[in-house]
Amino acid sequence: MIVHRAPGKLFVAGEFAVVEPGRSAVLVAVDRYVEVAVAPGTDPAAEVTVRSDLSVTARLRRVGGRLVALDSSAAELGHVITAIETVEQFAGELGRAPVAVELTIASTMHEHGTKFGLGSSGAVTAAVVAALSEFLGIELTAAQRFRLALLASVRLDRRPSGADLAVSTWGGWLAYRAPDREAVHILSARHGLRHAMHADWPGLSIRPLRAPPDVDLLVGWTGTPASTGAQLAKVYGGDVRASAAYRTFLRESGTCVAALESAVREGDSAWLLRGVRRFHAILRAFDSAARLGIFTERLTALCATAEAAGGAAKPSGAGGGDCGIALLHGDARTAAAALSEQWQAQGIRPLPVAISTSAGAAR
């Protein structure tokens, strides 16, 4: 049996902007994981079996390079099935014959099926790619695992940036710049995965960062799950991307993220917090202009309470619910316990998470 796990993610700055090719974000990996175990298949009727801790078991057979469900349970496992198909196609291009396999998935990114918004789709894709490729005897570097995971992801949706896949692969603090996912998808469709894996991906940049040693990260969950896909649809589906407000947002986000990344590299925690506050303001102005609903009542309260305690806070990710983050530095670090209590009084649940280092990433 081969077992791999991949951590979840939180955006420090750059969300929404990073969906555009060549745009940057800074993220951190957190110690909530998706774990994938791969073993030889034992079901005589199914070539691939997937068991999930969400009380879902899918039994599948291979038809023309695709996995076809023997029952209706596979509907909730789209990212998993597409990741398996992608790894098996890559294995086939390397001359490896398919074998019967069973995958077992467990996650600490949800509670009784309710997700916290920590990037479980990206983490499960990264973990499946890492575990199944090793099971099939394919040795991949971190960069190759990321690329294969992104090639799987774009088969389902070209809008997400792939930042979650990167941080689930490398762990720790990460600066990420997105490639053109449509171009990547076309490349693999025309020339195959082996070619696409080794081709140039314009715009892509992945830079691990040293964790700030004197900054505490607090995470609050609003209690309301949010759909990243639904939030991105508001941007892609209307006139937002053609607006002056969006162009302003992209320009200001780029400047802010570059300064924030420099602050992390130089170990300047005070400037890091200033960068988070600046991105909070940029995101709020964009939300007000585009009417995306990023800042809910509880996310607004989460940020205001953290700021009053001396921290820097913002929604993390697509907003509309899910999580917000607060960074505390200097004397404000002593306010962490009191801040958590205030969040709870406002109906915000503090999540006990810590930064997941590179040792906790999918490998």
TrEMBL record:
<dbReference type="InterPro" id="IPR020568">
    <property type="entry name" value="Ribosomal_Su5_D2-typ_SF"/>
</dbReference>
<dbReference type="InterPro" id="IPR006205">
    <property type="entry name" value="Mev_gal_kin"/>
</dbReference>
<dbReference type="Pfam" id="PF00288">
    <property type="entry name" value="GHMP_kinases_N"/>
</dbReference>
<keyword id="KW-0067">ATP-binding</keyword>
<keyword id="KW-0963">Cytoplasm</keyword>
<keyword id="KW-0547">Nucleotide-binding</keyword>
<dbReference type="Pfam" id="PF08544">
    <property type="entry name" value="GHMP_kinases_C"/>
</dbReference>
<keyword id="KW-0460">Magnesium</keyword>
<feature type="domain" description="GHMP kinase C-terminal">
    <location>
        <begin position="261"/>
        <end position="343"/>
    </location>
</feature>
<dbReference type="InterPro" id="IPR005917">
    <property type="entry name" value="Pmev_kinase_bact"/>
</dbReference>
<keyword id="KW-0418">Kinase</keyword>
<comment type="pathway">
    <text>Isoprenoid biosynthesis; isopentenyl diphosphate biosynthesis via mevalonate pathway; isopentenyl diphosphate from (R)-mevalonate: step 1/3.</text>
</comment>
<dbReference type="InterPro" id="IPR036554">
    <property type="entry name" value="GHMP_kinase_C_sf"/>
</dbReference>
<dbReference type="InterPro" id="IPR014721">
    <property type="entry name" value="Ribsml_uS5_D2-typ_fold_subgr"/>
</dbReference>
<dbReference type="InterPro" id="IPR006204">
    <property type="entry name" value="GHMP_kinase_N_dom"/>
</dbReference>
<feature type="domain" description="GHMP kinase N-terminal">
    <location>
        <begin position="85"/>
        <end position="172"/>
    </location>
</feature>
<keyword id="KW-0808">Transferase</keyword>
<keyword id="KW-0443">Lipid metabolism</keyword>
<keyword id="KW-0444">Lipid biosynthesis</keyword>
<dbReference type="InterPro" id="IPR013750">
    <property type="entry name" value="GHMP_kinase_C_dom"/>
</dbReference>
<protein>
    <recommendedName>
        <fullName>Phosphomevalonate kinase</fullName>
    </recommendedName>
</protein>
